[in-house]
Amino acid sequence: MMELTVLSGKGGTGKTSITAALAGIAESAVLSDNDVDAADLHLILHPTIKEEHRFSSGWKASIDTSKCKNCGLCISYCRFDAIHADKDEQLTINPFQCEGCRLCERICPEQAIHSELNTNNYWYVSDTRFGTLVHAKMGPGEENSGKLVTQVRKKAKAIAQADGTAWIINDGPPGIGCAAIASLTGIDRALIVIEPSMSSLHDADRLIKLIKTFNIQCFALINKYDLNLELSQRIEDYLNSQNVPLLTKLPFDKNMVQAMIHGKTIIEYAPESKLSIELKKLWHRIQLSTHIVDLHQAI
Ligand code: SF4
Ligand code: SF4
User: Fold this and answer.
1) Are 91 and 83 in contact (CB under 8 A)?
2) What domain range includes position 114?
């Protein structure tokens, strides 16, 4: 079993559309949406939820104002500046700033502070037309997306092992934060989606540096390369300098937008398009990578 994570250094590169297309081509992969902060793979895959699970992201503190004597001790101890006085001088804890360390609860001389486990996140196991999808939904302002990604991946792996599935395809989160790290840990292959813009190149550089610390085999593709040939060449030169194989350069295709509007992959919407043909070749090259060490020779 091989596990592939599709990533981009920034959002809006077309990563999810490409992941969905690969899922359709692979046919029997287990899919997992690791972009738990802004999950959108379900918009194309239209999952039928089979299992729903609550996920606890940590503790949140609150103050019982009937017990609070306004001594101010908790304000001075909170390292996250989460405790404030409202206009009536009553103390409240901002749930978006509270990191759930529970220190205030321990030091309050009046036992006026209590913490509750946050259970505003969910993860799901669903059926899709391309196979099983494990995905999640984070509540507004919730944290610990890395832990939720780890949970989603753990379930996807268990399903793949039980079913004898050859591939797990993860739609990774953008950026290089803890969710991206959780999406990379222990995978076999990372595919980076870059678009021809300076910001995308800059973000891809940070992502490639991160991936190298994990010692994971990493490839890249340039999406909509023909929108800026000069920058695409610059990205190609950069990837060469980093020894990151460029698996494909995907052309801009307005059918991609129409496919998304219709909730389909480009392979379903325009199977004969150049973009669909290139995506099929891309999946073939990813599969070849499990047998061929030198991918430059495979292209
Ligand atoms: S430490 Fe307790 S009593 Fe003191 S201000 Fe904070 S909540 Fe109120
Ligand atoms: S639990 Fe920690 S972070 Fe939250 S308000 Fe108390 S001291 Fe601050």
Assistant:
1) yes
2) 59-118
Angle at 170 between CA 13 and CA 3, to 5 degrees: 130
Same structural domain, 47 and 27: yes
**What is the total count of domains within the chain?**
2
88 Cα to the center of ligand 1, angstroms:
15
> How many residues in the chain?
299
Same domain, 191 and 83: no
Beta-bridge partners for 124: 52, 135
172 and 263 both lie in a single domain: yes
Say which CATH number the domain at 286 has.
3.40.50.300
The tokens 């021809």 sit on which residue? 196
Distance 64 CA to ligand 1 centre (A): 9
Q: Which two tokens stand for residue 208?
A: 């490639």
Instruction: Report the share of the chain in percent with pLDDT over 90.
Output: 79
Comparing CA positions, the residue from 50, 54, 40 lying closest to residue 128 is 50
Smallest-distance ligand from the CA of 91: 1
Atom of ligand 2 at shortest range from CA of 83: 5
Ligand index nearest the alpha carbon of residue 115 = 2
Residue type, 73: L
pLDDT tens digits, 184-214: 999 999 999 999 999 999 999 999 999 999 9
For the record, the structure tokens of 234 come out as 């610059």
The pTM for the full model equals: 0.82
Ligand 2 centroid to 256 CA: how many Å?
A: 46
Residue 32 has pLDDT above 60, yes or no: yes
Distance of alpha carbon 17 from alpha carbon 24, whole angstroms: 11
Ligand number with the minimum distance to the CA of 75: 1
104 ligand 2 Cβ < 6 A: yes
297: pLDDT confidence band, cut at 50, 70 and 90? very low
